[in-house]
Design a protein that fits this description.
Blueprint (H helix, E strand, L loop, with lengths): L7 E4 L1 H5 L9 H13 L8 E2 L12 H5 L12 E2 L3 H9 L4 E7 L2 H8 L3 H17 L3 E7 L12 H14 L3 E6 L6 H12 L7 E5 L6 H9 L5 E4 L19 H11 L7 H14 L7 H11 L1
Parallel strand pairs: 1-8, 2-3, 3-4, 4-5, 5-6, 6-7
Helix pairs in contact: 2-11, 6-7, 7-8, 8-9, 10-11, 11-12
Length: 302
């Protein structure tokens, strides 16, 4: 067992979460949410996405959000960029950390970003080079690592190939995404084992969706292999667009409760995250999807 003593949480609710909610949240509310998450102890928070507002109107104000964030060396606010145009917009907005996204599924790549895996990697090679020239760090997501909505099962060798190329290009961290939430603990472990033969485990993050209720179990299984970076979304924000009606991102509150029970330190105040989740859910006129948040809030109401 190689379970880590410390885990870094990458909070994706402000970007991956809100961009998959139908309602458009005002800039000042997003900034308030980010500040609440910072106050709770989170230090890495995805702040926005520089994609076309035509396709993702929820993220149209990302530049405005960036101008209102604190500038501190211990804080990281990655923004998603799909291409060089997005990167230039991120540079203009003052971003210091970006994230790019590729897929382990050929069909998903074609349908999601309108190009082959090979062409997407060629595109990102240019993006990474330009980002490095501007002293920006680059994180990479690999989608569909445990299953694809179009192709079904994905060969682990395909994930290894894409992840390794992105890492070799200069990405400091590779997030392995179970995009449709079909993974189970054993195949999640098999994937981590295969990828870690090529990329050090401390450079790997896991990004699980909870479509089949397996996200926490999968995270626990990956922790046992030494994974120490977990993507999660406050209140479980964000749906799963490729599995209609299904749950999306694993909730930060649920992950924190698991880690506390294992004695793993995050430096994050669970109750403060619950309150931040309640704040943004009130703006969305919904209840938190986190089971832990629901339980804690129910106790507060007694």
């Amino acid at each position: 067992m190689n379970r880590p003593k410390n885990v870094k949480i990458v909070e994706v609710g402000v970007r991956d979460g809100l961009q998959n909610e139908k309602q458009i949240i005002p800039t000042d509310v997003k900034v308030t949410l980010i500040q609440q998450l910072l106050d709770a102890g989170l230090t890495t928070i995805e702040a926005g996405s520089f994609v076309s507002p035509k396709w993702v109107p929820q993220m149209a104000d990302s530049a405005a959000v960036m101008t209102q964030l604190p500038n501190a060396s211990n804080l990281s606010f990655p923004v998603l960029v799909p291409n060089e145009k997005g990167l230039h917009a991120a540079i203009e907005a003052g971003a210091k950390h970006i994230a790019i996204f590729a897929a382990a599924s050929e069909t998903f790549s074609q349908r999601n970003i309108n190009c082959s895996i090979k062409d997407s990697l060629l595109r990102y090679e240019k993006v990474i080079d330009l980002a490095k020239q501007n002293d920006m760090s680059v994180r990479a997501y690999v989608s569909c690592v445990l299953g694809c909505p179009y192709e079904g099962d994905i060969q682990r060798s395909a994930v290894v190939d894409v992840a390794s190329q992105l890492y070799d290009m200069g990405c400091y961290e590779i997030s392995l995404g179970d995009t449709i939430g079909v993974g189970t603990p054993l195949n999640a472990q098999h994937l981590i084992t295969d990828v870690s033969n090529h990329i050090a485990t401390d450079k790997l993050a896991v990004h699980f969706h909870d479509t089949y209720g397996q996200a926490i179990a999968n995270i626990f299984a990956c922790l046992e292999l030494g994974v120490q970076i977990i993507d999660s979304s406050v209140a479980g924000l964000g749906g799963c667009p490729y599995a209609p009606g299904a749950a999306g991102n694993v909730a930060t509150e649920d992950v924190l409760y698991l880690l506390q029970g294992l004695g793993i330190d995050t430096g994050i105040d669970l109750n403060a995250v619950v309150n931040a989740g309640e704040f943004i859910c009130h703006q969305l006129s919904m209840k938190p999807r986190s089971k832990v948040a629901q339980a804690i809030l129910a106790k507060q109401d007694q």
